[in-house]
Amino acid sequence: MAIEQTLSIIKPDATGRNLAGQICSMLEGAGLRIVAQKRVRLTRDQAKAFYAVHAGRPFYEELCEFMASGPVVVQVLEGTDAISRNRAVMGATNPAEAEAGTIRKAYGLSIGENSVHGSDGQETAREEIGFFFSQLELVG
Ligand code: ADP
To answer: Is the pTM of this model over 0.90?
Structure first.
């Protein structure tokens, strides 16, 4: 059990439905502390850079277009086992397969428009946090 930080994004389908506050509540309820947060509108190129790991996958273009289609809330979450804790409260990628009590089950619209992003490992978390935030912006 270690204190970790992870990157979370509240995606455009959720900001568009005014769900940011409710999603923050679920994250906090899962024991995660929001130590940095900002609302930004990504350009398509920024979305492509962020999701470069998925370049070449069939959904890549659609994903980048969606992520640039409206504002997102990017946040750094901190807590015990924050990476897996966040993945657990997010739920499965496809909301139809997500467990009850998860964010994607509650709010996800489809496998693409699934309301939240969360880093999937320690190295990814470091890189993704660095994509959006400087150390100065992380305030526990
Ligand atoms: P996760 O976000 O659960 O870690 P992935 O890393 O596999 O899932 O995919 C990244 C994002 O790409 C997903 O959250 C979703 O928005 C989108 N995505 C994944 N698979 C598909 C798909 N088959 N069709 C459309 N979009 C997809």
So the answer is: yes
